[in-house]
User: Which sequence fits this backbone?
């Protein structure tokens, strides 16, 4: 509120349906009384030296670095890649361009400490995850008496790729399930597929 | 979910783009490859795709699990 931001909302929850909430924005934009933007790129005060008061890496860059870390790209390579990209667009101009090794190390630490455990019980964890990611879950079936469940995950982007590249083409099912009982030639096929996935992610 | 991934295997469905890069198009986590379970997600997935494009049809379906029930592939074709 120190910047006079008027953005605020009201949240209503039903006692009987605690997982559902209705959010009503009273003021959706991050503006002050005069109507001038208070945060982000539109905020003129955040440009230049004033930006040191609210330095923050954009969500886009954070996601990009996180995915690079997830596929195992070393810190040095990430920094080099970033520096080259900044030089290509004519030197640093915003907070993102000043990405430091410490920023990347912090993200590394965040990944290391992230356990993804939503609940101590696996059954509850899975149910909560499905509840939170309904848009990306195309199939869910559970049978916890047998300690079994089936969870199918597909994002909208993946659906589009499936429509585009799967039609009149071929689809591969890669299962790490049966890898121990496979014969030799089948194992070599598995390796080839996972190698290619890695290549794609490293791009 | 990390412990779940170790305990419950992951199936990945893949397609190839025009540069022969592999794109994962769906993941299925399941404790078994029972025909019944596979049937469930396979039908759900194909129905999801066909609601977008009724004529959607792959030419081939490659599998690496020798215990996979081949007859399920008919849902794709």
Assistant:
């Amino acid at each position: 509120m120190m910047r006079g931001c008027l953005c605020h909302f009201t949240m209503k929850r039903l006692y009987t349906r605690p997982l559902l909430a209705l959010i009503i924005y009273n003021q959706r934009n991050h503006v002050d009384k005069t109507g001038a933007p208070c945060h982000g790129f539109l905020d003129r005060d955040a440009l230049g030296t004033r930006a040191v008061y609210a330095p923050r890496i954009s969500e886009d860059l954070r996601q990009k670095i996180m995915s690079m870390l997830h596929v195992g790209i070393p810190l040095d390579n990430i920094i080099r890649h970033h520096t080259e990209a900044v030089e290509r667009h004519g030197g640093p101009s915003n907070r993102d361009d000043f990405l430091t090794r410490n920023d990347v190390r912090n993200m590394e630490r965040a990944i290391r400490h992230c356990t993804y455990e939503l609940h101590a019980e696996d059954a509850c964890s899975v149910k909560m995850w499905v509840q939170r990611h309904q848009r990306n879950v195309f199939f869910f079936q559970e049978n916890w008496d047998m300690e079994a469940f089936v969870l199918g995950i597909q994002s909208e982007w993946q659906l589009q790729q499936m429509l585009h590249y799967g039609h009149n083409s071929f689809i591969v099912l890669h299962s790490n399930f049966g890898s121990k009982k496979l014969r030799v030639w089948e194992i070599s096929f598995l390796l080839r597929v996972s190698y290619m996935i890695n290549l794609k992610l490293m791009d | 979910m990390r412990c779940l991934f170790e305990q419950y295997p992951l199936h990945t469905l893949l397609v190839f783009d025009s540069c022969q890069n592999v794109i994962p198009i769906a993941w299925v986590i399941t404790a078994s490859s029972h025909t019944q379970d596979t049937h469930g997600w396979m039908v759900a997935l194909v129905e999801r795709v066909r609601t977008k494009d009724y004529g959607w049809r792959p030419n081939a379906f490659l599998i690496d699990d020798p215990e996979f029930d081949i007859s399920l592939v008919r849902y794709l074709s």
